[in-house]
Structure formats: structure tokens, C-alpha cells
Design goal:
This protein has 620 residues and is an alpha/beta fold. The chain has helices at 11-14, 24-33, 36-69, 75-127, 131-137, 139-158, 166-184, 189-233, 235-240, 244-296, 302-357, 411-418, 441-447, 462-467, 477-486, 490-495, 512-524, 542-556, 568-573, 591-595, 601-613; strands at residues 370-378, 386-395, 400-404, 426-431, 434-435, 448-451, 460-461, 503-504, 530-534, 560-564, 576-581, 584-589. The chain has a 6-stranded mixed sheet with strand order 6-9-10-3-11-12. The chain has a 4-stranded antiparallel sheet with strand order 2-1-4-5, with helices on one face. A two-stranded antiparallel sheet has the order 7-8. Strand 4 (426-431) and strand 5 form a beta hairpin. The chain starts with 10 loop residues before the first helix and ends in a 7-residue tail after the last helix. The relative contact order is 0.09. The protein binds adenosine-5'-diphosphate (ADP). The site of adenosine-5'-diphosphate has 13 residues, from helix 12. Pfam families: ABC_membrane, ABC_tran. This is Probable ATP-dependent transporter ycf16. It comes from Chondrus crispus (Carrageen Irish moss). Keywords: ATP-binding, Membrane, Nucleotide-binding, Transmembrane, Transmembrane helix.
């Protein structure tokens, strides 16, 4: 086709071309700001609540001042003065309560909305890419970013919604300082203007250091989780090789490694905790001494001193809270960096694919003729290893082509080009003459189905699993049953306790062969024109293998089939056999033609297979 082609290897080159992006934190704030209709009232509520909070100590101080004079005042005067001041305090409390509830609930809602949007965008943009993207980034990394990193950002924000944390703490420090300075004038400057910035700088430094260390601990934790995840999934392998001790040792090493960071974090946290305490005591003592000296010198009254005492407490707690906030912000910052890095990579990869997709035509009706035109390929994750070189072949509609050859030769890779898991590095794969990369996935996926050796079923009922074959449509029960019948699965499904509603989970008591037949039914729901099969049924017992084989033979009729053949009986019935070796097709022809080629690759393979097993249905 005449479209401009940009393949995956160019994606790396594309990335530097993008305009420099703002910092992840800023991008996140921009996202949050999209909900400004919720955020603005929330911020106003926070401001009012903070005003109330800093006014309280002043009102309390006034009560203390009345108490100090109570003995010298007439009883009724003292009582009414006390009650009036207490009444004022109650009103302030009520306003603060209302505003706090408003602030917390609105911020929570807006954060949830923004993070949900971010999660959905990440998932959508990630899924849009072909498998090269997943090889490049790593599935665990993607999963970690979409699930954990987003949770970390959310928890950091949630944890900072209380009075003495985050925004409220900062507002209280600023408002409180302004109030104190307005009450004491220049006289209070050495106490509030001098002491607070020193303590605040120290607190911020410690908070930042803690945040960095916490992120390092989290990164190591992720490595351990990915290790455990892999080993537990592959527990059969571990057992089969008696590798329990070795795995124990490997985990020990990872844990040792993580412990170093964790210890550093522990020490740093302990120091912050200690410093915070001592900081509080020290500020209070300084305040009392300086304030006392000022009272002695007649610069402030006892009432002013009393009013500001409560505020010193608020200030201390708020500064302590700011230190935790900075720690949380640094942690959230590291997660935001991963989140936006993934988003940018998904976008860059997607953009490259979009250029290829640009000539798609959704109305296309396909007959299923497949052609490989000089296809070369390397996996994006291993650009140095060329896997296919100049592969040319064609399959006419309804034909069955068998791929044979030694393992590692590139058979699965050729199949992955037809299922469009990967795009060719150069050359093209066409269906009915249309470049596969220019067909929207929605269109092509209706025509092409894959049945592989170890099919995956998702947790859910058997019916849901079969209907997954047509994910965007309501699949009727009749269609599910038709597909299951075609796949030789109907009979066993109806015998299960809940029939088609039986829930499949890895623990459920459904055999490998049955699982395979459910997967075949799933790929038949959409009545595909093109079938890509990996024939290996070696994991099955003979009886299941025979039933699955029967199902496969039935579904192959009247369809274009590309099969990675493992049996001589299959290659015999194939319309054409392609012998794949080192990424090239080295022999091509019918069974008889290839068998007649003395000393050819195929003939050698067939001879060794028949000699080994001695019958025509044996495995090759
Ligand atoms: P076959 O199906 O004939 O056994 P494959 O197509 O699976 O061969 O593999 C061909 C080559 O591609 C092998 O060298 C293999 O290591 C490599 N390969 C397969 N899958 C990937 C992948 N996802 N990433 C990188 N290299 C891969």
C-alpha cells in the first residue's frame, strides 16, 4: 500500500521528537483541575476551616485571660464573659466541622474521578498496542503502574486530608503566622518570623529524604513481588527441578538487598520522629522564654501571650504534618513519574501504529487470502536478533498450510504476524491484498481466530468465556451452544453441575482437554474465516488428544488455516507445507513433493520421526 509506514523500531526515534512534557506532578494537577467545579468549593471550604482553626486558640486565650482575672471580677461579669466567649467558640467549631466535611468529601470525590480517568486511559492506551509494547515495558511493570502506583498516589492524597496534614496544615501555618504577627506586630517577629522558617526548612529536608527512601523501598518491594509472582506461577517448574532451596536462597538475597534500603528508611524515619518531638518541645520552651521576657519588658500583655500559646501547639502539629506531607508527596511523585512515563510510551507506540492504521476501511469483507511479502522481523525487545528474513508465501482462501521445522526457527513468530500480535519490521502481510496493519483491529479480529497450546480462560462462567469470542456483542445462548457443539465441547459442558453457568477458575475441576475445547468454542463464536492453530496437544492424555484433534479437524474445514503442525497426519492433509529454518522458508510444497526431495529437510525430518515412533500419526 502507499501509506507511510513507521514500524516499531522507529518508536524510539519518535520519542525525542515530542515536545518536552511538564513535570508529572504538574500534569497531574492539570488533570485534577479538570474537576475545578468540585475543587474550587473544596478549596474555599479548606480555607474557611483553616481560618476557624487558627482563630480558636485566640478565643481560648481570651477565656484564659478572663480566668486569670476571675477572682478580681464580680461573679456575674466573669460568668457572662466566659459564657459569651464559649458560645463564640462553639459557633467556630460548628463552622469548622461543616467545612471540614465538605472539604474532605469533595476532594475525595474529585481525586477518585481523576484517578479513575487516569487508570482507564492507561489501560486503554496500553491495550491498543501490539505485543511488542508489552515485551518492551514488561507486563509486571505495566500492571504495577496501573494498579499500585495509582493506589499510592490516591493513598498519599487521602492520608493528607486531615486537619494537621497537607493543604490544611499549610494554610494553618500561613494564616496563623499572619494572625500572630497582626496581634503582636514587630514584637512577635523574632518568635514567629525567626523560629518557624528554621524549623520548617529542617522539617522539609527530612520529609524529602524520607520520601526518596520510601520510594526506594517501594521499588525493591516491587522487584520482590514480581519474583514471587513468577515463581508461584511457575511452581510446577520449581518443584520439577527440586529448586525449592535455590529459590529460598534467591528470595533471601532479594530480601537482604531490600533490607539495606528499608533500614536506611527506618533510621531516617526515627530521626524525623525524634527531631519532630524535640522540635515541638524546643519551640514551646523558646516561646515561653521569649514571651516571658517580653511580658517582663512590658512589650506584650499576658492576654496576648495566652492567646498565642494555643497557636504554638497548632503550628507545631502543622509543621510535623507538613513533614509527612512532603514524604508522601515525594512518594506520590515517584509513582506519578512511572504513570506518566507509561502513558507517554503507550502514546508514542500507539502513534507509530496509527500511521500504519491510517488507511483502514471498516466495511471490508474478507475472503481470507493471506500473503507474506518479503517479511523480515525482529522482536522490539531484542532488536539485535533478526528472527524472520524475507519470508514470502501465500495461502488461498480455504487452504490449509502447515508450518514445520525445528524449534526456535520462527514458526510461532510467523503465526504471530497473521494474528497481528506483532507488525513486520519490513515487508508486509496482506489479507485479500489489504495490508493487515491498515485494517482496524475491530474488523480483522472478527475474521481471524487463534487456538494455541495452552489457552487461557478468564475467571467466570463457561458461557461467558465462550461469548468472549465476540466481546462487543450480546452473544445468544444458541450461538454459544453452536460453537461449543462444533468444538466437541457441548456434551461435556451439559454434564457439568451448572452446565454452561459452571464457573471456571484455575482450581475448578475441568481437564486440560476440556479447557482446550472451551477455548476452541470461544474462537468459533465469531465464525472466523482464518484460523491460526498451534497443534500441540502433547500435554493431553490420549483420549483427550483424540477428542481435541477431532474438533480441530472439523473446524479446519472450509477455512483458511495456518497450523504449526506437530503430527504427520496433519502435514499429510495440508495443502502446502512450509519448512521454516532460521527465520526463512527453506522448503515449500505438498507432502508428496517434499518427501520426494532426497536429502531435503522435510524428508530427513519425516524419516527420523517415522523411525522414532513408527506410525503415521506420530508427533514430529
Ligand atoms: P518456533 O515457533 O519455530 O519454535 P519462535 O517463533 O517461537 O520459533 O522463535 C523464533 C525466535 O524468536 C527464537 O530465537 C526466540 O527466542 C525468539 N523469540 C520468540 N518470542 C520472542 C519474544 N517475545 N521476544 C523476543 N524474542 C522472541
Amino acid at each position: 500500500s502507499g501509506t507511510t509506514k513507521i514500524h516499531q523500531q522507529d518508536v524510539q526515534a519518535l520519542i525525542p521528537l515530542q515536545a518536552a512534557k511538564p513535570r508529572p506532578e504538574l500534569r497531574f494537577l492539570q488533570l485534577l483541575w479538570q474537576n475545578w467545579r468540585i475543587l474550587v468549593p473544596a478549596l474555599v471550604a479548606a480555607l474557611v476551616a483553616s481560618c476557624c482553626a487558627v482563630v480558636q486558640p485566640v478565643l481560648l486565650g481570651r477565656i484564659i485571660a478572663v480566668l486569670a482575672r476571675a477572682e478580681t471580677l464580680p461573679q456575674t461579669v466573669a460568668r457572662s464573659s466566659l459564657l459569651r466567649k464559649a458560645g463564640g467558640l462553639v459557633i467556630v467549631y460548628c463552622i469548622e466541622l461543616t467545612c471540614t466535611i465538605t472539604f474532605v468529601s469533595l476532594v475525595t470525590r474529585s481525586i477518585d474521578r481523576s484517578l479513575r480517568q487516569l487508570r482507564e486511559t492507561l489501560f486503554r492506551k496500553t491495550l491498543r498496542n501490539d505485543l511488542g509494547f508489552f515485551d518492551n515495558i514488561g507486563r509486571f511493570e505495566i500492571e504495577k503502574t496501573i494498579s499500585k502506583d495509582i493506589s499510592i498516589v490516591r493513598d498519599s492524597i487521602w492520608g493528607n486530608l486531615s486537619r494537621d496534614r497537607g493543604l490544611r496544615a499549610m494554610l494553618e501555618i500561613f494564616l496563623g503566622l499572619a494572625l500572630c504577627l497582626s496581634i503582636t506586630g514587630v514584637v512577635g517577629a523574632p518568635i514567629f518570623g525567626g523560629l518557624v522558617p528554621v524549623v520548617a526548612t529542617l522539617v522539609a529536608q527530612m520529609g524529602l529524604r524520607n520520601g526518596r527512601l520510601a520510594s526506594a523501598v517501594f521499588a525493591k518491594d516491587s522487584t520482590i513481588q514480581s519474583y514471587l509472582n513468577e515463581r508461584l506461577r511457575g511452581v510446577r517448574l520449581v518443584k520439577a527441578f527440586g529448586a525449592e532451596k535455590r529459590e529460598q536462597r534467591d528470595l533471601g538475597n532479594l530480601l537482604d538487598n531490600a533490607e539495606v534500603d528499608s533500614n536506611k528508611f527506618g533510621v531516617s524515619k526515627a530521626m524525623t520522629e525524634g527531631a519532630n518531638r524535640v522540635g515541638i518541645y524546643f519551640t514551646i520552651m523558646t516561646y515561653f522564654v521569649l514571651g516571658g521576657l517580653m511580658i517582663c519588658a512590658g512589650k506584650i500583655t499576658y492576654e496576648t501571650f495566652a492567646c498565642l500559646t494555643g497557636f504554638i501547639w497548632i503550628l507545631n502539629f502543622a509543621m510535623q504534618g507538613v513533614s509527612y506531607t512532603i514524604t508522601d508527596a515525594a512518594k506520590a511523585g515517584a509513582s506519578l513519574k512511572s504513570i506518566y512515563a507509561l502513558l507517554d510510551q503507550a502514546n508514542a507506540f500507539g502513534r507509530a501504529q496509527k500511521l500504519i492504521n491510517s488507511s483502514g476501511s471498516p466495511q471490508t469483507k474478507l475472503k481470507g487470502e493471506i500473503q507474506f511479502h518479503d517479511v523480515s522481523f525482529h522482536y522490539p525487545s531484542r532488536p539485535e536478533a533478526s528472527v524472520l528474513q524475507g519470508v514470502n508465501f501465500s495461502i488461498r482462501p480455504g487452504q490449509m498450510i502447515a508450518l514445520v521445522g525445528d524449534s526456535g526457527g520462527g514458526k510461532s513468530t510467523i503465526a504471530a504476524m497473521v494474528t497481528r500480535f506483532y507488525a513486520p519490521t519490513s515487508g508486509s502481510v496482506t489479507v485479500d491484498g489489504i495490508d493487515l496493519q491498515s485494517l482496524p483491529n475491530k474488523v480483522y479480529s472478527r475474521y481471524c481466530s487463534l487456538v494455541d497450546q495452552d489457552p487461557i480462560l478468564f475467571q467466570g462462567s463457561i458461557k461467558e468465556n465462550i461469548a468472549y469470542g465476540l466481546p462487543d456483542e450480546d452473544v445468544s445462548d444458541e450461538e454459544v451452544i453452536r460453537a461449543a457443539t462444533e468444538a466437541n465441547a457441548h456434551e461435556f459442558i451439559v454434564k457439568l453441575k451448572d452446565g454452561y453457568d459452571t464457573i471456571w477458575s484455575p482450581e475448578s475441576n475441568i481437564s486440560g482437554g476440556q479447557r482446550q475445547r472451551i477455548a476452541i468454542a470461544r474462537s468459533l463464536v465469531k465464525s472466523p474465516r482464518i484460523l491460526v492453530l498451534d497443534e500441540a496437544t502433547s500435554a493431553l492424555d490420549q483420549e483427550s488428544e483424540r477428542i481435541v484433534q477431532n474438533a480441530l479437524e472439523r473446524v479446519m474445514k472450509n477455512r483458511t488455516v495456518l497450523i504449526i503442525a506437530h503430527r504427520l497426519s496433519t502435514v499429510r492433509t495440508a495443502d502446502k507445507i512450509l519448512f521454516v529454518k532460521d527465520g526463512q522458508i527453506v522448503e515449500e510444497g505438498t507432502y508428496d513433493q517434499l518427501c520426494a526431495k532426497k536429502g531435503g529437510y522435510f524428508q530427513t525430518l519425516v524419516h527420523s520421526a517415522t523411525e522414532l515412533v513408527g506410525n503415521a500419526t506420530s508427533s514430529i
